[in-house]
Request: fold
Amino acid sequence: MSSIKSVSTESRVFEPPAEFAAKAKIGSREAYDKLYAQSIEDPDAFWAERAEELHWFTKPTTISQWDPPFAKWFLGGTTNLAYNCLDRHVLAGNGDRTALIFEGEPGDTRTLTYAELLAEVCKLSNGLLDSGVKKGDRVIIYMGMVPEAAIAMLACARIGAIHSVIFGGFAAEAVRDRVLDAGATTILTQDGAWRRGKVVPLKAQVDQACESCPGVVRTIVLRRTNNDITMKEGRDLEWAAVLDGASAEHEAPALDAEHPLFILYTSGTTGKPKGVLHTTGGYMVYAHTTTKYVFDMRPDDVYWCTADVGWVTGHSYIVYGPLANGTQVLMYEGAPNHPGPDRFWEMIAKHKVTIFYTAPTAIRAFIKWGDEHVTKHDLSSLRLLGTVGEPINPEAWIWYRDMIGGGRCPIVDTWWQTETGGIMMTPIPGAVAAKPGSCTLPFFGISPKVLRDDGTEADTNEGGYLVIDKPWPAMMRTIWGDDQRFKETYFSRFEGKYFTGDGARYDEDGYFWVMGRVDDVVNVAGHRLGTAELESCLVAHEAVAEAAVVARPDELKGQALVAFVTLKSSAKPSPELNAALSEQVAREIGKFARPDSIRFADALPKTRSGKIMRRLLRELAAGQTPTGDVTTLEDISVLASLRSDES
Ligand code: ATP
Ligand code: MG
Reply:
């Protein structure tokens, strides 16, 4: 009852490549250990030093204040995140360096230097202020992946308006819910966004959402796809008109360290999304520090994170962290398989990308599409790879390392959440040896623990509840407008400790292995098992691209295991394959874990951010119609096809 049993047999270890380590900011395990020890023994001293690397109009007087569940960081300090991402570099004489390299889905490109990006952000800041947006107002950014989305975020951050980016793949209903919850007055959007050669009509969704959002007094509309839109007199403004005549100079105001920076809704894997609030100073220092060390980032890197700005990864690791570090950020507008399944590899070769950060769901899709799309491009510019979003199956990790990284690039498997603001566990690439499927060790200042049901600490290799027992600068401050839900969701399970909702264990080397969400834990023959290890066992079979394991009620056994499996495009479902997969689980894990049913599926239900929604599969496996929130589901038709394909 109290713990989660680990059945993983993964034992491969990959040391940091010597050539990488030799040039890295942190180039040895000793250096990591030393800095980590300092960061835990005296976190205030550690973070004060990190804060010194950024500009403050007034220096903080108190580094941290912890009144569980409420944290404050850099009290008394005033700063400006946009200033630190832009003005600071320009003032240091680096205005001519490339900040953003944009590639549109149709193939158009645009490059902005730091000076140019600063000018654009200043213009929009002035334009927003002139149109009546004030400090503290909530501004929705519902856009595609275009430079203006980043410019909009930076302009809001600059003037102290609280942005809430809504993923452009969401429809009117999801926009409405978030607008209402945030109490937003302003929406920044575009006529449409390109996706797989088609126009996603964003403005039309905004119009529909606004029918039930009387609080929205203005929208500002960028023209991107030139599809027909209707502009509502008195409410809708053209982006170009707002910028017209706006000065390219704007003095960044000094904002309090705890001034709210953004609200971001979680991706909704487990249910109704939560409006996570982040504030200025702590988030800024943490995004800057994690980017610097986790990606070993330098100004001459060409860094590409394939997330959308609608997710926290897009906030911390497309916009704020990389720009604060003064690097060159590649931003891509469209789908990974448009016009062909090799678009990403073509872009890496073309832009000479050095750091590539993507999600396991994307990696599994690449595997499914076939190696031939990768091998025809020159990926030798890459020096570092990263993943985020889900536990990565060890076989997918190995494929990523060999096929994309040419066996030469370290991989940083970064565990974190919308709530944590930045990367919490990860190998430091020049210092910490990687194990496929493990996010390895905590980042500086982070104190993760694995607890049993009763709150005592789990032993080595005993799975339990993953908590963080000390505050860190970028931790969420609350759920927007709902302190009570904040307390209940994160701090009531284990008094005074932040509960992540994930299950994990640490191994004999102190490495952390995230075993999936505790809500998804399955109970087989009296063993509580995390889904990640069972799924990884299936994915290790050469025919399998992706797998999701859930339990359904069973009269005899209590729970029976159902595995949903997606095959590589080279493989076909068959009774023999079914038997072989069952055999693989029996051999690798044990007969008790043999799935009671294996269902082949063309696709699995996922959130818009690409995470498997086991909650829905559980209901399907039990023969029920999914009941909970399905608005965050990426493709509703996947549910219907899974339902009709009973086997
Ligand atoms: P919701 O909280 O609304 O259900 P969500 O948890 O999917 O949505 P995010 O904050 O985007 O929203 O995702 C964080 C979660 O993603 C983590 O709690 C964890 O389950 C998973 N995750 C992220 N990175 C990793 C990783 N490297 N390894 C394992 N799991 C990861
Ligand atoms: Mg979550």
